[in-house]
Amino acid sequence: MSTSCPLPRAENERVLLGHGAGGRLTAELLASTVLPATGGPRGPLEDAALVPGCPDLVLSTDGFVVSPLFFPGGDIGSLAVHGTVNDLAMRGAEPVALSVALLLEEGLELAELEAVLASLGKAAQEVGVPVITGDTKVVGRGAADKVFITTTGVGRRLPGLSVSAAAARPGDAVLLSGPLGLHGTTVLSTREGLGFEADIASDTRPLHRLVAALAGLGDAVHVLRDPTRGGLAAALNEIAQDSRVRVEFDEGALPVPEPVAAACDILGLDVLHVANEGCMVVFVAADAADAALAALRSLPEGGGAVRLGEVTAADGHPGRVVMRTAVGARRVVDMPLGEQLPRIC
User: Fold this and answer.
1) Measured between alpha carbons, how far is 69 from 259 in angstroms, rounded to an integer?
2) Which Gene3D superfamilies does the entry mention (predicted)?
3) What pLDDT is recorded for position 212?
4) Is the pTM of this model over 0.85?
5) 173-332 belongs to which homologous superfamily?
């Protein structure tokens, strides 16, 4: 009989909630497991991809597992439409059509499903994008949590826009179209009954009209990214790494609503890591920054647009993001490791 004690299985050999958070664990899972198995493309991982052989068409797919299904400002149905439309928009595309796949848990009340689908249909109509195909599956009790939605979107690139996470350049201005932290703190507060939802609501909304407003600036617009999973910290780190540049921004320029700041202080959250669903980061040539801000502010969804900072040369530290704090110090903003707030989108 052997007296040896087997080594415990390493925790990183199992899938964790953090692997779906959009941070460092997600990047590691993609690089080590998903992309090698599927033959995924080399280079920056974008929110949506150009269709091979059809350079004007853009394709995106996304899964939505938010809990709870309904929250102030939105629900899983409208979120599924907005999230996919926004992924297309971040590649400079207007939405053409959507596909919707539903994974339903046995025992789900039909009234609840009807409410989700009514919201999804209304959101698609308001955007002006038809749902042209889809699928429905039902699994046993406990095999899913009420409703999971997967949406696929097809878009057409807007003339003059050619944006990529790898296209940021030294000298670029970094803009943000709206306030931070509303979606993540709203969903968490509703889920846990914390009471903040009385003062805040999710910012979930489509951003394709903002992108269309920027199209007139043409190749002065270099990068578009919506800071969803992993928040602003993840979005800026991905862009800095893919473009091999350094990004600096001012803490005092961050548009953080007071209820969000209060919720983050009480819960110990970093607002830079909290998910957003209705704002986007724009990297634009410095001489076009004022025009870009004016274009964003010309629409209600961009009324709170601000200039955050700028892009500098890497200087031996490619991929670094630095925040200039309110007390005059500099703080390195790292890529989030895992998930502060699971089941957010």
Assistant:
1) 22
2) PurM-like C-terminal domain (3.90.650.10), PurM-like, N-terminal domain (3.30.1330.10)
3) 97
4) yes
5) PurM-like C-terminal domain (3.90.650.10)
**46-157 maps to CATH 3.30.1330.10:** yes
Tell me how far apart the alpha carbons of residues 203 and 117 are, in angstroms, rounded to a whole number: 20
* Tens digits of residue pLDDT in 283-319: 999 999 999 999 999 999 999 999 999 999 887 778 9
Domain regions of the chain by residue span: 46-157, 173-332
Instruction: Check if 46-157 and 173-332 are the same fold.
Output: no
Share the mean pLDDT of the chain: 91
Helix axes 110-127, 76-89, angle to 10 degrees: 30
* 3 state SS for the chain: CCCCCCCCCCHHHCCCHHHHCCCHHHHHHHHHHHHHHHCCCCCCCCCCEEECCEEEEEEEEEEECCCCCEECCEEHHHHHHHHHHHHHHCCCEEEEEEEEEEEEECCCCHHHHHHHHHHHHHHHHHHCCCEEEEEEEEECCCCCCCEEEEEEEEEEECCCCCCCCCCCCCCCEEEECCCCCHHHHHHHHHHHCCCHHHCCCCCCCCCHHHHHHHHHHHHHEEEEECCCCCHHHHHHHHHHHHHCCEEEEEHHHCCCCHHHHHHHHHHCCCHHHCCCCCCCEEEECHHHHHHHHHHHHCCHHHCCCEEEEEEECCCCCCCCEEEECCCCCEEECCCCCCCCCCCCC
